[in-house]
């Protein structure tokens, strides 16, 4: 078994034979930012200071030849070849932040609620010990080989009874979404997780703006609900981009949060309807909605193109790159996933 050493903290993590560095870190609860888990995005890229490793297949757009020559590696695909692999991590203490993922955890579907013409909310309850996770994380759901496991963000803050909520979009050619939406109350589903590092930090003490599109609302909603419940006192603005009024969800919960918490404000913008303003895509109308983003923590979740366009708009409005956190939903392979570290 190899050892992963974190620099400069000196902490060590065991890496079983055949495991990637990312999987070994997650198994021990260490929150290395990651996104695609397939060598396509470069989010888990770190510098290797010592040791040898098999990089596996990684696109040049994620890890350039120059970066490879400088000793960088994509940890989602990297497997140690030497006894010790020392990686450079930008933290002094590298405190454990994550709960180790569990495999094949049994849940029972207790409800399926149509939230929009395209999105259904699935409610699952654990058949055994509740899953421990941080708001903003995701799990893998599916039934291989017919329905390959896909990443679905948990849409609710942790509950004492362990109930989990998911927003599932029926994709035109999506085998997994079709399989999930064909389940009926009482059916058993098994999941792996939790995964991801789009998680919270109670020390944040600035206003927060959350920007979501489609089912990207799930991790945003979990983070927002958890923060407000624990007494987060700074202003929280959540903006949801939807095509039509029928695509705005979940109205009841969002209205409840506005009534209960005076510091929470929800805004929806429509991209295809002629309903009441605001209308238009978030990147185009963001200045009118929020003004400056200097001194504001910003969370963005949704399709990859939406996240990137919105990120650029936020930077143009003065957002500090270190206070801008993203959860891009990228095309998934059999174990696709999504997550970029956040502070809230």
Automatic annotation (TrEMBL):
Keyword Iron found: yes
Keywords: 2Fe-2S, Iron, Iron-sulfur, Metal-binding
Residue ranges annotated for the FAD-binding FR-type domain, each copy included: 102-201
Gene Ontology molecular function, alphabetical: 2 iron, 2 sulfur cluster binding; oxidoreductase activity
Domain of life where this protein originates: Bacteria
PANTHER family associated with the record: NADH OXIDOREDUCTASE HCR (PTHR47354), PROTEIN RFBI (PTHR47354:SF5)
Protein name: Ferredoxin
Native source species: Acidimicrobium ferrooxidans (strain DSM 10331 / JCM 15462 / NBRC 103882 / ICP)
């Amino acid at each position: 078994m190899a050892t992963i050493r974190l620099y400069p903290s000196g902490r060590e993590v065991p890496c079983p034979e055949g495991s990637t560095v990312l999987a070994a870190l997650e198994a021990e609860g260490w929150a290395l930012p990651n996104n695609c888990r397939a060598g396509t995005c470069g989010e888990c890229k770190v510098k290797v200071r010592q040791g040898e490793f098999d990089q596996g297949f990684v696109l040049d757009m994620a890890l350039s030849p120059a970066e490879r020559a400088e000793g960088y590696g994509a940890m989602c695909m990297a497997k140690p070849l030497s006894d010790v692999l020392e990686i450079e991590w930008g933290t002094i203490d590298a405190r454990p932040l994550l709960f180790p993922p569990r495999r094949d955890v049994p849940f029972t579907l207790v409800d399926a609620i149509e939230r929009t013409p395209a999105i259904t909310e699935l409610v699952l309850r654990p058949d055994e010990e509740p899953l421990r996770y941080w708001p903003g994380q995701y799990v893998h759901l599916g039934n291989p080989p017919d329905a390959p496991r896909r990443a679905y963000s948990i849409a609710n803050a942790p509950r004492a009874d362990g109930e989990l909520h998911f927003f599932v979009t029926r994709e035109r050619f999506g085998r997994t979404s079709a399989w999930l939406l064909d389940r009926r109350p009482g059916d058993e589903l098994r999941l792996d997780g939790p995964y991801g590092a789009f998680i919270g930090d109670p020390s944040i003490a600035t206003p927060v703006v959350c920007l979501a599109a489609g089912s990207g609302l799930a991790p945003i909603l979990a983070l927002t609900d958890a923060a407000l419940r624990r007494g987060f006192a700074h202003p929280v603005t959540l903006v949801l981009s939807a095509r039509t009024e029928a695509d705005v969800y979940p109205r009841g919960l969002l209205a409840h949060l506005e009534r209960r918490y005076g510091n929470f404000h929800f805004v929806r913008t429509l991209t295809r309807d002629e309903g009441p303003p605001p209308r238009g895509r978030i990147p185009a109308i963001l200045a009118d909605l929020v003004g400056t983003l200097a001194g504001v923590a910003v969370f963005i979740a949704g399709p990859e193109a939406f996240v990137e366009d919105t990120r650029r708009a936020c930077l143009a409005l003065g957002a500090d790159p270190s206070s801008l956190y993203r959860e891009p939903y990228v095309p998934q392979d059999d174990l696709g996933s999504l997550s970029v570290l956040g502070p809230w």
